[in-house]
Amino acid sequence: STDSCHSRPAPPCLACGVDDVDGTQLPLKCRDLTNNETVPSRWEGPGRCAGRYCIYSNRGFANGRGIVAITTAASFAILRTLKETSTDQTDPAPPYYLAPVPGKGLGLIANRTLHRGDALMIEPPAVLVHRGLLETVPPATQHPLLDEAITNLPAARRETFLAQMGHFQGHRVASILATNTFQMDIGGPDGHHFGSFPEVSRLNHDCRPNVAFRLDYKTLTHRTTVVRDVRPGEELSITYLDSAEPRARRMHRARQAWGFTCGCSQCRLADAAAAKSDRRLEEMKAIEARLADFGDDGVNAGLLRRLVRLYKDERMEVEMGGAYTLVALNYNMLGDAKNAVKYARLAREAVVIEGGEEAGDAEAMSMLAEAPKEHFTWRARVR
Ligand SMILES: C[S@@+](CC[C@H](N)C(=O)[O-])C[C@H]1O[C@@H](n2cnc3c(N)ncnc32)[C@H](O)[C@@H]1O
């Protein structure tokens, strides 16, 4: 029956679509994958449900890596139309290795020099869970559904998923999801999901990370890019938090949302250095507010240089896009075309690293870099 395929726990990896399982065709179309046979990408489901949330799976997704979703029929209708990325194979020689990191469990360590702008990983999710399931369905109903969903992943993917750290007590799959997922909106009126990307989830948090990440809904991928040069042996990190918050708030948030005491270099600063860092963050916010206020008469080149300096001193390479954009626009408003072009180029590079080619300001910054004097901001602050 259809159920025999859905509930089969793991290897030997029989792959069969619900459409095929009609008795006579089963032996032909449900294939044994232990010999690495490629499985076609095809969604199966709905399988078991809890209210409006049902299991859908696709063992052939992303060149056979597989995915399982617990979602609504409406979100599944969107999910099945999303483009499957072709750059989804595990890199046979990734530029990092997994190793214990004191105070943080395991982490990813660079094994070669990496440069700003280098792509690190492009990963499809292994598991996608609708927010409503996690937030509204009681554990007694939710947990068996989570357990069953995981059995629908191909064996290798399931093992990688289950090997992730679960920071919380209690149900294993629920704990893994709570420790490792990223919010992912797949579109539609009710598209809020949590995605698990097991390879990515080895990246520990740092308030001054050397890697930026973004979720690309159209290709259903998690994309990471290096934001400053990294030496071999250095840990790779992303931020789970708002890097521009003061240290006490960041540490509070790490404890409250993830249950860990942040041990990153910025959180471990001595009190005097942490207070200095907090003052820099405050000054950055204050300068940015002035640069965004076109009526502020006191904006000058010194203020622009100061903002760039503060970002560099704070090692905020992961969030340079907005600051460089403001600096480029303000140089142009002051009638300094040379610096407007310089910072518009830097802004474009940064917003693409942070948000992808389609990021809002990418095109605007290209246009400013090409023709500053034709831009509407040209000399707007010159009276
Ligand atoms: C997504 S996992 C990161 C990988 C994890 N260290 C592992 O061994 O698989 C998140 C967990 O790693 C640990 N962690 C991540 N960043 C940390 C940090 N800055 N300080 C302390 N622990 C951290 C916490 O236990 C957190 O719940």
Automatic annotation (TrEMBL):
SUPFAM superfamilies attached to this UniProt entry: SET domain
Highest taxon above the source species: Eukaryota
What protein name applies here? HET-domain-containing protein
Gene source species:
Echria macrotheca
Where does the SET domain lie? Answer: 94-241
Which of UniProt's keywords are assigned here? Signal
Keyword Signal belongs to the record:
yes
